[in-house]
Structures are given as structure tokens and as C-alpha cells.
Design a protein that fits this description.
Chain lengths: 503, 313
């Protein structure tokens, strides 16, 4: 008996000692040249044509250079394209390329490589939409390419900078090996031997990179951590220097002396899919849409469900950006009496019945929606869907609870959120609203800075039309150790490495 | 023994067929068209239609099933709808992680459970037996995620003995591998330890009352040899529990993998279910069923070896 006990004790002790020999790695960034970044999701694909913009940024920006980058204000800045110029009719975009750049397999980056990459991106399942208006891509000379468009596209440079112009080795594109093995010209090389796919990706800095100063860290570790508690614990145990954070942890993060960076990333509210009343008569009446806007207390929703991490607003243009108008936030103050009056005026004093979709992701808002609409007499019948099915079917209902990504570029917001058909906006119906239609036409006719006042006017008009019922814009939050600064970029769910700096 | 082995293997194959077929049809029924989830917010209807066709979702469901099944029997589970990589490659990356944790937890549960079970079986009224009774109630009552969080807070955040999250492959660094799987394994093993120890203790108490034990003692055998005989007779129940625990731990690993951020099959199942990646879900189901069949098959063999009556039944 004693021998069994002795053997057990010895085995457990040996196990513990062996396991503890490699204790937690010290926090890197501040003390060493390493930086350990915790993001929310694993990389979708190393192939830029199959990757997502959202959370793939830190991975892809380590190994690939983009043709065009964005600065902290989401303005297009040079990447492998040193400069660019639009033709007078804005239907040709000519890119002047950087010379002397090589991919990690030794292949040169030149106009031929850029053309091959752009064609690959245009054909890509996930990247293709960025180049939907591009009809032809041509090599002009050894370091110049031109993109020919079927119609003016004011969002093209923004989307390219957001993560749709990563350049990969033409040889790797040809052999279709990119999905598992990235071959780029980026500031780091992927160290497959030190990485554990799904758990940690290690990138070693390349010497002599053309944009060396933008990337101050010697080794970058990126860990996908889906659980916010796990991510927070990893920060606390010193395993991470930067973490994608849960806003509920902000007070504790501040207590720990970490840097906290936040910016709006999504709008939360109710999306109307039919504003004309063709499919669901009540929503075709502006008074009903306005009543719903008045009935919800966005600030209270932000506080109770959104952990107060965001901006209470009824606009879908990101807060703090040029188009956003603070004065418009007073357009639909929380006023149940006014809401009821509007419903009565519209001929619905006792409300109406509506079926809305629901899935586990949106359940935090479900009781508020049920209660608030109930106060207007609107009886909601919920149709439960799986999260995967929600995106497919939500827009087949007249209205649904939505959390939709924001774009920091105003022209991209107009195209992606108002005028073009999207899964969440199957009936843009701008033509049915003369003033909206007129303003959209003016926006599309203008370019650059001249667009902004027009988009501001459009924002005012769609707010007035109660185009949707926005309760608030929710933040994305990032924690970082002292000495490391993260700059959030609206449009990127996790910013690319150029936005993770010392400071 | 050969007939016994063939019978068990055939029932395993039938189970595999039934479970994977049911998963295929249920998953398609529940998830429907996954293209919107796969392409994200900005996808246009045209893009979704193109992906729909690319994934072969425009074909009749029965055709899709036969296509999947005819490839799966040859070990080809198709490609993931998320990253278009072979399902088998992704599962091959994930299986070692889950197996590392589950095998370590099983080993830990077997060694410690065996020791505690024997000790408490020999002294059913001793202090250890009382501690075991309390521990079995407490550890069953406490949720696994809470136990995991307490371990993380204590040994990773405060003491910094182990990492809070992450996995290091064995081939990269054996000591770092051991370090990365220790807390998850302990979290998984704790409930299993008390369950095995309880089973063994009960078995011990039952067997020690039997006539043959009294005879053995009367013949003057040393207490060690008597204990060996008792253990042999008391162990089948504990072994069955161990095998059931192994299968249960495979399922329980999903919570532990999320808390410790381990890239195993549990977290892959969760992410695949969220976005509706049916090929991954089907591959994972097939692999899990194979594990369950194999473990039960091995258990049957061991039980048959220990007790010939099992073979005859």
C-alpha cells in the first residue's frame, strides 16, 4: 500500500516539476523586443483573396505589404503603390509601384506581379466585392499598373487600404499554396516552426524592409483567443501585451495600469428591410418608423446591454467622423407619448403584429425589444434561428435586431449601407424617396472632399426618414501594457500591425 | 475471442454510419444555406449565389450526402467552407491538442483515482474515505468552467506557475507542452478522479466481503497478494467508468478548450457550428465516433481478458 502511495506522490511531483519548468513567458513588449497580441479570431486564410478584413489584419499585415494602406484617419496612404492618380472621368486608376521589393521566395514585386495579384483578388470569394466595378487590370510599364472601372468607385481606395490589396508572390498564387503558407514581402516572416496553428502564430522581423520604421517590434506573436475572460486572464498572467477586450473589464484594466483604446465599430438597433410598405404596410408609413425611433431609449440600452461602451446616437455614420452630426442625435428623443401619438396618427393606435427573427447572439436585446414595442401595441412573434441562419434569413422579415459593422469612410458607408443591395438591406429603395434619390445622385456625381457636405445632407435626410432605428454605436476596445499603444480603426475589427506602436 | 472482436467492430461500423448520416441531415436542416455567414456583412446576393454553387449546395441533399459519404469512406472529408482547406488537415492539427489534454486527464484520473480508491477501499472508515465522500459531492456540484477559472486565477494569474492560455506542441518543446496541458488536464480530471475512486472503493468493499477473500486470508496469503486479487475483481466497474469518463472528457473538453484557449476539436466544433461549416462538423463527428468506438472496443477487450464471462455474453 505504501509503495502505491509513494509511486503516486513521486509521479505527481515529477509531473508538477516538469510542467512548471517552463513557466509563463514574461510579458514581451515593454521589457523586450517581442510583442504578444491577443485577437478574437483565428486567421480565416493566408490567401488574401479568401481572408476576412475583420480580424485577419494582424496576421496578414505581418507577412504581406498592401498596395495601399490607411492612416489613423482612414485616409489612403502609400504602400507598395508609391502614388496613384485617377483619370479625369474617374474611370481609370493608375498606380505607380515601389521598386526593389522582393517577396520572401525571391520573386520580384513589379507591375506583372501586381496585375496577377489584383486579378486574383478580383476573382476571390471574399475579396471580389472590392473590385466589383473593376473591368480590367493592365500593366502600363514595369512599375505602373492601371485599373479600369465600369463606374466611378469612391470607396475603392478605402477598401484596398482596409485589407483588400495585400500582395503575394505570383508563384504562390499560381501553385495555390497561399492558403497554408503565406509568401509576401511584408515586414515579418511567418515562423512556422515556432507557431502552433490555432493557438499562436510567430512572426520574425525581416531586415531591410522598405517600411522598417513603422514596425518597431522584433518578434510578433499573435494568439487568437475567442473567450474574453481567457483573454483578460492572459493579460493578467503576462502572456499578452495587447488584447481584444471586453468593455466590462475596462475598470479593472485601468486599475492594472494598462492602456485602454476604444472606438466605434458597429451600430446596434433595428434594421427596417421594407420602407415602402410593399411587403409590410405599417413600415411604409414614416410615422410608424419614427414612432419606433422615439420608443427606444438608446442611452439606456447602451448602458444596460452595451456596458456603456459606445455612443448613444440614431445615426449610422461613425461618431466623431466628418459626416456624423451631433445635432441630429436630438431628432428622436426617448418619448413614449409622442411615439404612441405617431402610431395613432398612422392608423395604428392599437399597434400591429409583426414577426421578427431571433438568435442566441441577439438575445441580450430581445427583452427590451419585446417590452418597448409592446408599449406601442406592437406584438412581436419571434422566429428562432441559428446564428448561421440569421444572416441568411433575417432580412426576409420586415425588421430585425441588427449589429452591423461601420465604415470609417463616408463614401463606403453610403455605398455599403444605403444604396447597394446587401444581405441586411435587400431593398435599398432609395428611388422611392425622391430627396434621398436626389442626394445619392449628387454624392455619386461629386468626388473627394466635395462629397462630404452632400453626404452630411444625406445623413440628415435618412435620419429624418427614420431609415433604421439605431440605438447606439458600440465600441471595439483594446487593452495594452504600458509602453504600447493601439490605434483603433473603424472598419477593421482588429487593427493591422501598423496601428500597434510603442508609446 | 475472434468472433467477439468481429462482433464489436461491426457494431462500431454501424454506429459510425448511423451517427454521421444523422449529423449530415440534421446539420443541413438546422443550418440551411451558410453562405451569408461565410461571406460576412458585405457580401452581395451575386457573391452568395456564386459561393452556393461553388460549394455544391444547389444539388439535391441526397446527392450531396452520397458525394460526402463516398469520399469520407476513403478518408476524404472534403474542404472547409470557411477557409477552403481539407477538413482532414484541420482535424489532424486539432486532434493532438484534445488528445493530449484528454489522455493526460485520463491518466491522472486513473493513477490518482486508483490510489485513492484502493486506500479508501482498504480503510472504508478512514479520514481519506470521509474526505473522498465530501470531495465527490463538491466536485460534482461545482461547474467545470468554475473549477477551471479557479485553477487559472490561482496557478496562472497569481502564482504564474503555468500559462493561462495557449498550447505548445510536444514536438516544439516537451516541457512547454506539459506546462500548457497541465491546468486543463487537472480541470478535466478532478471530477473523474473522485468518480473512479468511489467506484473502486465500493468494488473493494463488495469484494472483500466475498468468501474467496476470506479463504485467501485463511490460507495465509500476504495482505499485498490478497489486495491484488481483490483489485482484479473490483476493477471492472472502475475500468468501465474510466472508459465512459474518457468519452465524457472528449465532450467536456469543449469548455476547457475555450477557457484555456486550446486549439482542439472542442473549440473547432464550436466555431464550425457558429458559422455553419458543415464539412468540419461532419469530419469532427466521424473522428469522435471513431474514438468512442475504439475506446469501447478496447474496454471490451480488456474486460473480456479479465473476465471470460464477458466474452461469452
Amino acid at each position: 500500500m505504501k509503495r502505491i502511495w509513494r509511486a503516486t506522490v513521486v509521479a505527481v511531483a515529477a509531473f508538477t516539476v516538469a510542467a512548471c519548468t517552463n513557466t509563463t513567458t514574461p510579458a514581451g513588449g515593454t521589457a523586450t523586443d517581442d510583442i504578444k497580441i491577443g485577437t478574437l479570431l483565428d486567421i480565416t486564410s493566408w490567401d488574401p483573396a479568401q481572408a476576412d478584413i475583420g480580424f485577419d489584419g494582424p496576421y496578414l499585415s505581418a507577412v504581406y505589404d498592401p498596395l495601399i494602406s490607411l492612416d489613423k484617419d482612414s485616409k489612403a496612404v502609400p504602400g507598395l503603390a508609391k502614388a496613384w492618380k485617377y483619370s479625369a472621368d474617374r474611370l481609370t486608376l493608375t498606380l505607380d509601384l515601389r521598386t526593389g521589393v522582393k517577396f520572401s521566395d525571391g520573386q520580384p514585386f513589379d507591375a506583372a506581379a501586381a496585375v496577377q495579384n489584383l486579378q486574383h483578388l478580383k476573382a476571390g470569394v471574399r475579396s471580389g466585392q472590392t473590385y466589383a466595378n473593376v473591368t480590367d487590370i493592365k500593366k502600363v510599364d514595369a512599375d505602373t499598373v492601371s485599373l479600369h472601372l465600369k463606374k466611378k468607385d469612391d470607396a475603392l481606395l478605402y477598401y484596398m487600404g482596409l485589407g483588400r490589396s495585400w500582395m503575394a508572390s505570383p508563384a504562390a498564387i499560381k501553385t495555390k499554396s497561399l492558403a497554408t503558407q503565406p509568401v509576401g514581402s511584408g515586414p515579418y516572416t511567418y515562423d512556422k516552426g515556432k507557431s502552433a496553428p490555432g493557438s499562436e502564430y510567430v512572426f520574425a522581423k525581416k531586415s531591410g524592409h522598405w517600411d522598417d520604421k513603422t514596425y518597431p517590434f522584433g518578434t510578433v506573436h499573435v494568439q487568437p483567443i475567442a473567450d474574453p475572460t481567457a483573454s483578460f486572464n492572459a493579460m493578467r498572467s503576462g502572456q499578452l501585451d495587447v488584447a481584444y477586450a471586453n468593455a466590462a473589464d475596462i475598470p479593472r484594466a485601468k486599475g492594472a495600469g494598462w492602456n485602454v483604446a476604444s472606438d466605434v465599430a458597429t451600430w446596434v438597433g433595428i434594421q427596417f428591410t421594407d420602407r415602402t410598405g410593399k411587403q409590410f404596410k405599417p413600415l411604409g408609413d414614416i410615422r410608424v418608423r419614427r414612432a419606433i425611433n422615439h420608443a427606444f431609449d438608446g442611452a439606456a440600452m447602451l448602458k444596460s446591454v452595451g456596458q456603456n461602451a459606445g455612443v448613444a446616437t440614431n445615426q449610422m455614420f461613425p461618431a466623431g467622423r466628418p459626416v456624423y452630426d451631433k445635432a441630429l442625435n436630438g431628432r428622436y428623443p426617448f418619448d413614449l407619448d409622442k411615439a404612441k401619438k405617431l402610431m395613432a396618427e398612422a392608423g395604428y393606435p392599437d399597434g400591429f403584429k409583426v414577426t421578427m427573427p431571433m438568435s442566441s447572439i441577439f438575445q441580450p436585446w430581445q427583452p427590451s425589444v419585446q417590452q418597448t414595442l409592446g408599449k406601442l401595441g406592437i406584438k412581436v412573434k419571434w422566429k428562432n434561428l441559428s446564428p448561421a441562419d440569421y444572416q441568411k434569413n433575417a432580412a426576409t422579415f420586415p425588421m430585425f435586431v441588427a449589429v452591423l459593422a461601420l465604415d470609417s469612410n463616408a463614401a463606403a458607408s453610403v455605398d455599403g449601407r444605403i444604396t447597394s443591395q446587401q444581405w441586411f438591406n435587400p431593398n435599398p429603395s432609395t428611388k422611392d424617396f425622391p430627396k434621398v434619390h436626389d442626394l445619392v445622385g449628387k454624392v455619386e456625381a461629386a468626388t473627394g472632399e466635395a462629397q462630404l457636405p452632400l453626404i452630411r445632407e444625406l445623413n440628415e435626410e435618412i435620419t429624418d426618414q427614420a431609415w433604421q432605428d439605431v440605438w447606439y454605436q458600440a465600441n471595439n476596445t483594446y487593452f495594452s501594457n504600458k509602453g504600447i499603444k493601439v490605434t483603433p480603426i473603424t472598419g477593421m475589427m482588429f487593427p493591422t500591425l501598423r496601428f500597434v506602436q510603442r508609446g | 475471442m475472434i468472433r467477439f472482436t468481429i462482433r464489436r467492430l461491426l457494431s462500431g461500423v454501424v454506429l459510425l454510419l448511423v451517427v454521421t448520416s444523422a449529423t449530415f441531415f440534421l446539420a443541413h436542416l438546422a443550418i440551411g444555406d451558410p453562405t451569408a455567414g461565410l461571406l460576412g456583412n458585405n457580401a452581395t446576393p451575386d457573391q452568395r449565389a456564386a459561393l452556393h454553387e461553388q460549394l455544391g449546395l444547389d444539388r439535391p441533399l441526397i446527392t450531396q450526402f452520397w458525394d460526402w459519404f463516398s469520399h469520407a469512406v476513403r478518408g476524404d472529408f472534403g474542404t472547409s467552407w470557411r477557409n477552403f482547406q481539407p477538413v482532414s488537415d484541420q482535424i489532424a492539427l486539432r486532434v493532438p491538442v484534445t488528445l493530449s489534454v484528454v489522455l493526460a486527464a485520463t491518466l491522472l484520473a486513473a493513477v490518482v483515482g486508483l490510489a485513492v480508491g484502493i486506500a479508501t477501499g482498504l480503510r472504508p472508515d478512514g479520514i481519506l474515505a470521509r474526505v473522498l465522500k465530501v470531495a465527490s459531492v463538491v466536485l460534482f456540484a461545482l461547474p467545470g468552467f468554475w473549477v477551471s477559472l479557479v485553477l487559472v486565477m490561482t496557478f496562472a494569474v497569481r502564482l504564474k506557475w503555468f500559462p493561462a492560455v495557449g498550447y505548445v506542441p510536444l514536438t516544439q518543446s516537451p516541457s512547454a507542452w506539459l506546462s500548457s496541458i497541465t491546468l486543463p488536464s487537472v480541470a478535466l480530471a478532478l471530477a473523474a478522479i473522485v468518480m473512479i475512486a468511489e467506484q473502486l472503493r465500493n468494488g473493494f468493499m463488495e469484494v472483500t466481503k466475498q468468501d474467496f477473500v476470506r479463504t485467501l486470508r485463511a490460507r495465509g496469503l500476504s495482505s499485498r497478494r490478497v489486495t491484488t486479487h481483490v483489485l482484479r475483481n473490483a476493477s471492472p466497474a472502475a475500468l468501465t467508468v474510466l472508459a465512459v469518463m474518457f468519452v465524457g472528457l472528449l465532450g467536456g473538453a469543449i469548455v476547457v478548450e475555450i477557457i484555456f484557449n486550446l486549439p482542439g476539436i472542442g473549440s473547432l466544433t464550436q466555431s464550425a457550428a457558429q458559422i455553419g461549416d458543415i464539412p468540419i462538423l461532419l469530419g469532427l463527428t466521424a473522428v469522435t465516433v471513431v474514438f468512442v468506438v475504439l475506446v469501447n472496443f478496447l474496454l471490451d477487450l480488456v474486460l473480456g481478458w479479465i473476465n471470460p464471462k464477458v466474452r461469452e455474453s
